[in-house]
Structure formats: structure tokens, C-alpha cells
Known about the structure:
Elements: E1 8-10, H1 20-24, E2 30-33, E3 36-39, H2 49-53, E4 59-61, E5 74-79, H3 93-101, E6 107-108, H4 111-127, E7 135-136, H5 141-150, H6 164-180, E8 187-193, H7 196-203, E9 215-218, H8 219-232, H9 244-247, H10 254-259, E10 264-268, H11 270-281, E11 290-294, H12 310-322, H13 329-332, H14 337-340, H15 361-377, H16 391-399, H17 409-431
Parallel strand pairs: 5-6, 5-8, 7-11, 8-9, 10-11
Antiparallel strand pairs: 1-4, 2-3
Helix pairs in contact: 3-8, 4-6, 15-16
Amino acid sequence: xxxxxxxxxxxxxxxxxxxxxxxxxxxxxxxxxxxxxxxxxxxxxxxxxxxxxxxxxxxxxxxxxxxxxxxxxxxxxxxxxxxxxxxxxxxxxxxxxxxxxxxxxxxxxxxxxxxxxxxxxxxxxxxxxxxxxxxxxxxxxxxxxxxxxxxxxxxxxxxxxxxxxxxxxxxxxxxxxxxxxxxxxxxxxxxxxxxxxxxxxxxxxxxxxxxxxxxxxxxxxxxxxxxxxxxxxxxxxxxxxxxxxxxxxxxxxxxxxxxxxxxxxxxxxxxxxxxxxxxxxxxxxxxxxxxxxxxxxxxxxxxxxxxxxxxxxxxxxxxxxxxxxxxxxxxxxxxxxxxxxxxxxxxxxxxxxxxxxxxxxxxxxxxxxxxxxxxxxxxxxxxxxxxxxxxxxxxxxxxxxxxxxxxxxxxxxxxxxxxxxxxxxxxxxxxx
Length: 432
């Protein structure tokens, strides 16, 4: 596996230790110690939920600055479909793509075209016998990392097809090099990302050794530059080649609609996804063929690195796709394209060890017994005042030596009351 990389970072000087992020982290990867939050790398899945909820803006996503494109003689922009939803008055997708070209890119290649290829591959995959049911989408890297951390028994259900941004980068670089007669190492492919999880997936890929992308620029950073270009107007280039279904991947349910499976389910919002994954893990959804889970509410349009309100952006995407020619992915993508590019995983997806108590099974059992004992003695309020998200996680932290029992303010209060009573009794005996 690649060395762990995280796009989500903590700005310690801004952190006030308020515990807001602590209570919202889906993998319980945050602790508050000494008045500051700390992110446990082994548990973080870079979903960006802490970025979204932090009232002090102490959580940030590390992405590539726009000027990093100048590292390459030739530059290709790969916009996520969610980028189009950031501009309410956008008349056509070609307008946004032309604007990107004018920002200094030699070419623009839609990630939606990669989504069309992945859609066709998914359709073919679902036709195979003995496919684990339900097949789980791998499009959202935060959800894949969530499964690695919390639902390792479901890893075999995750589809072995690379994300649309990776497929688009493979296609874009090969087409550009063939058209212009340049070497692949001279060409830089940059994804315009709505979320930090995609940046992490580029630096620490899942299912393959090396990303086809050379960097990721946040939508938030590129928004102002692109908005200025759109205001200038001018003639639009005919650059859009994706189907409305590929563009529709920006919204929750877009992937499920693209594969045209009646027996599918699309869920957005990481807490909602967790509840459904628990149902799948408990064998309650075996009749389902396909599950699409997206960490952000509304889909990628609700990513923490976007500019526009997620619901407004979702509506903009819907209107744009309604004006496009109605072409299915299986009609737009020839079956031969599935073997033209390395779109399938080459490495197995492995579970992460962040939630493992100990590598030694005997020591792990001992710690488990200790955790159960401590948990029974804690009040069970899950208030977060101790700096751990729940009483159960505090028990785990105590068993691992990262916290003490008196970090619980209710245990401390009880101990102080006992000590106060003992002081009164001691004083009384001394007086007599």
C-alpha cells in the first residue's frame, strides 16, 4: 500500500477546542487534547465533514495551487461535472470548458466522458454471474476508505473499476500525445476537484499503484478565475463530448441512473451511507444489485470545496442535462473502449488497521476486556467533554494509554465529591 496521505489538515492556531468536529466525524478520527483538536491519521478518510462544520475554519484541505500547472509544458484541465453547477447563469457546458481553456490550459477533457466509460463498464460488470450483491460503487473515495476502515467485510462488494477522473486522465493524456506528438511526461493532467478525498485518492491511490493525474485544484480556488472569463463572453469552442448521464454523475443518483439498473439504491450524506452499509453488512439488502454511496449531501455538488449552495448547483446540473441530447452511455461508448485503457484495478483493496486494538490477538482480547470494564463505569452520556467523541471511544483511549479515567468530567466530579467528604470527615476527627 502507498504511504498514507491526507488532504484534510488542522490549522492549530485557529482551533478553539470546541468539539464540533469531534461529534461529526464519521470514523471517530478526532480527539481534543490540551484545548486543541487532533486528527488520527489511521482513521481519517478525508471526507471533509470537519471542514464543513468547523465554525472557526480550523480544518482545511490541501490541494494544488493554480500556478502548479506551470510545472508542465502542456496542461490539460479535467473538470468535475460538479463545476458546471457553480454558475447559475451558465448557458452551456461549452461555455465553461472554453473559459477553462482561456485560463492557460492547452486542452480541456471532461471527467464526465470518463464517467460515461465507467458507466458502460459497470453495465457489463453487472451482467457477470456470481457478482457480489449489492455491487458497491467506487466513485467516492471517501466511501471506499470508510469501507476499508469500518466495513472490511464489504470490500469484496466494491467494484474494481477506477474512478471517472482516473479514466478521464488516461484518455486525455493519450489523445493529447497522439494529436500533438509529445511525450506523456511533458503533459500534466489536473483535476478540478469538489472535495479533499479526490486529492487524497490522487496522492494515495486505491486499487492501483500510481494515479494518472498530476494534481488537483479545488473548485473554490478556480471559481473566481473562471467566473471572470465567463463574464468576458466571446465565442464558445465546441468541446463538450459527454452524455447527459456522464454529467449527471455530479448529483446523487446520477451514477445509478447512468447504469440504468432498476434494482439500485443511491444514498448521499455520510451518516446516511453508514446506516445503509450496516444494513448491507447484516445481509438485509441481498436483493439489491447496485449501491451508490456519496459522502457529501446531494452528491459531488455538495462537496466542501465547492462555491455554490449544493441544492442550487444540483438544480443547475439538472437543467443543463435536460438541454443535452439524450444519449445513453452504452450507445456513446463502444465496448472496445473498455479494453483500450487500463480502467480496472490492478491491486486489491485492503482493510486499514486504524480500528485494530493490537496486532497480537491475545493483547487485543485483553484490551477488549479492559475496554468493556471501563465502558461500564462511564456514564454513557457521549457528551464529548473528555475530548473523545463517545464514552466508548474514551474507554478505548484509556485502554490504549491515550487518556485517563479522570478525563471524564462526571467521574472527576464524583471523585471530587468523595474527596470533599473525606476532607470534612478528616477535619472533624482532627478537631476532636
